[in-house]
């Protein structure tokens, strides 16, 4: 039994099936499309359903396992993300307002959004506190400079594979793994694509902070720039390095240690890859 991931709405059905004793599996729509292209370009609902079933029967997929704490954190983080988008939009709008009454009204709206975000953060902290393992994992991830409570919580809620997969696979899941674009004698520019966008956006903000306040990441970023890398490319590399380091920390149960040295993805003590 399998279904395509569709932005989260599919999970209600998946969880209901799991509660009823079935073993539903979620599949990546892109992987199904790529799989289907090798069979036939024809499409309709019946054909698509058959392709999903064929894909699920061909590729080993782990069944969905319910985790009520992570489900609650997922919903809270999504709400926080929505409020943050509203707050950014309100701040941008406030800069353009010239009518005093409108500026006052927008200031009140911004204050309300901040209050609501604080309430969500408090609720997230309360949920984390109910699960000792998640609380310990979050505290460990936060030992990496520039990783705050929100980003650490999102990693645990939105990336349950953290610490269980290789550095390359975890980077591909989040969408910070560079893919080749070569053909014949042409060497195309490496690029990132797909992945878990909400988590990647948080990691992007963490990387911006890290190149200022995390000595290891700052030095790494400066080396890349000195080598002629584009700023965007260098920042994505920092995101990749941070994520693989967090993956190693979660796998080994070790806190961040700037003394851990990375040599071609192999660590001396498991904290940075």
Automatic annotation (TrEMBL):
<dbReference type="Pfam" id="PF01548">
    <property type="entry name" value="DEDD_Tnp_IS110"/>
</dbReference>
<feature type="domain" description="Transposase IS110-like N-terminal">
    <location>
        <begin position="2"/>
        <end position="95"/>
    </location>
</feature>
<dbReference type="Pfam" id="PF02371">
    <property type="entry name" value="Transposase_20"/>
</dbReference>
<dbReference type="InterPro" id="IPR047650">
    <property type="entry name" value="Transpos_IS110"/>
</dbReference>
<protein>
    <submittedName>
        <fullName>Uncharacterized protein</fullName>
    </submittedName>
</protein>
<dbReference type="InterPro" id="IPR003346">
    <property type="entry name" value="Transposase_20"/>
</dbReference>
<dbReference type="GO" id="GO:0006313">
    <property type="term" value="P:DNA transposition"/>
</dbReference>
<dbReference type="GO" id="GO:0003677">
    <property type="term" value="F:DNA binding"/>
</dbReference>
<feature type="domain" description="Transposase IS116/IS110/IS902 C-terminal">
    <location>
        <begin position="139"/>
        <end position="222"/>
    </location>
</feature>
<dbReference type="GO" id="GO:0004803">
    <property type="term" value="F:transposase activity"/>
</dbReference>
<dbReference type="InterPro" id="IPR002525">
    <property type="entry name" value="Transp_IS110-like_N"/>
</dbReference>
